[in-house]
Amino acid sequence: MPVSKRIITPEERARRKEHGKEYESRPDVKARKKEYRNRPEVKAIEKELRDLPENKERRKEYQKEYLARPETKMIRHERDARPEAKAKRKEYYSKPENAARKKEYAKEYYARPEAKVRYKEYRAMPEVKARKRELSSRPDAKARRKEYASSYSISIWKEIFDIYGWKCACCGEDNTAFLTVDHIGGGGRKERTEIGSRLYRAVIEANDPTKYQILCFNCNSGRAMRGIGGICPHKLPKNWRFDLHAPLQTGSS
């Protein structure tokens, strides 16, 4: 005799769901579940199931869909905006190993083609541009940029002087306010045009004393004078006079 299949009504399904929720929230039930899941054999089975390729892919898809939900984004935004959450993140990333890991991941992530496209589209949004202009125009932001530019410039020049010397290779001037980089074989103007603001970083990376040297501004400018042949006036005879009609030297600086 065939057994008739019982039909579960929506009300009964809701009742069962409510009962299950209430049952799972009981302290004794939670304790039993925790004790069960902490067993070595259960942990091993769970790990084996988690490591299955199809389960990994399923989790990845679900997480992607879950994080894309508007309500999830709102919950995460509210949670991340809490002072205790900010303090916790700050403490976590203040550790060198965590900061290095974050930096390495960001470098790898933003090198991906799809990330570059998304970032470009995001920065092109009118509201993002307006927000950026607003933030950049704030006095504190201007002060931070100025402070950063100053500290960055000091660190760059320190590296250059450590490699090429802390005084003028011609006259011996050692006041760093008067010193600059000179291209020994010429081509400074061309390289500056091609590289632009990365010139001093390129000088550091080259680490080549046969190509670059430190000169004071007087000696550096003197080498570019007309009719001088790329020689500093300090090294010319005392009776040498500047020729206004000679062609300008363009190979130095």
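Next protein, fold it too.
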Amino acid sequence: MTTTATRSGFQRRLLRRRLELDLCLQDVAECAHLAPAQLVLMETSSVEPTVGELAALACALDITPSELLRPAADGIPPRRRFVDLSERQCSQLLEEGGTGQIVIGSADDPLVVLTDFVMVDGDIVFRGRADGILPCLAGRQAGLRVDRRDDGLTQGWTVKVTGRVKRVTSRQEIRRLDHLIRPWAHHDNDKIYLRLTPRHYSGRRFDGCGPVEQA
């Protein structure tokens, strides 16, 4: 376990390292075989990892356990090579659809909602319950983040897109979308569809070898 002397530094280095690699909490937790809530506690409170958990975290974050524990103030240099993606490349990566994170609220107090999406005529289309959170996005600006990683978190990409959201009301269009997006549950009669028209894309691709290229 970590010692009292290095505990606060461990929390800072754990969080800083994850952000340096632009990894979401769920990805690191899954790779380290931890519950996301457990990782949150390690980053924000005095919860200490076991020796096994420390080794798994170090592996997920591409550093050594001693680098996570060391009390020195110097930073941990990223070992992954990052490459910025053009807006066209970002759009192409999202064409296959999948699952993404809709970010609602301010940067200081964001709410993240997982949702399936597809690209339709250049727009990002996703669905939600009529009595849920997502319908409040209609007529507002919103962001979508999509992360793709290999099993070892050594290669992958992140794409973020922002734009204005509008609700799909055409019955013909709704029937069309019913065949494109799989429902979360079988009883999904109270669903609605929303379209996000992209205004700005940003993204990075990374791999785990070669010299570092700062994004």
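About the second fold: The first strand starts at residue 81 and ends at 84.
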